Amino acid sequence: xxxxxxxxxxxxxxxxxxxxxxxxxxxxxxxxxxxxxxxxxxxxxxxxxxxxxxxxxxxxxxxxxxxxxxxxxxxxxxxxxxxxxxxxxxxxxxxxxxxxxxxxxxxxxxxxxxxxxxxx
Length: 120
What we know:
The chain is an alpha+beta fold. The chain is built from five helices and six strands; from the N terminus they run αββββαβαβαα. The chain has a single domain, classed as Aspartate Aminotransferase, domain 1 (Alpha-Beta Complex), CATH 3.90.1150. The chain has a six-stranded antiparallel β-sheet. Helix 1 (5-13) packs parallel to helix 4. It is globular and about 35 Å long.
């Protein structure tokens, strides 16, 4: 169980028109200029996905050892920390997909099948 930094990185970059940049000295992943995920914050053992607050609750309830709401307003808006060592690869893929879909413009989402969303 768990994923490596390399796996998170590869999965995040697998979405159409995703680019890697840097934000506050750690990699971030963007579509149409909008960050949907980051890697290495608060340290190398973590990633972050920006999902809806409802999806965040679902991920946290399903895998509380892998997902944790970020603190403050960012967390209340859906920013969710991901513990790499404990997250299941399939669940991480769903979380990254949800985050990408939330950030991507309509023309990019139009051709993609809908995701199943957060685990139930």
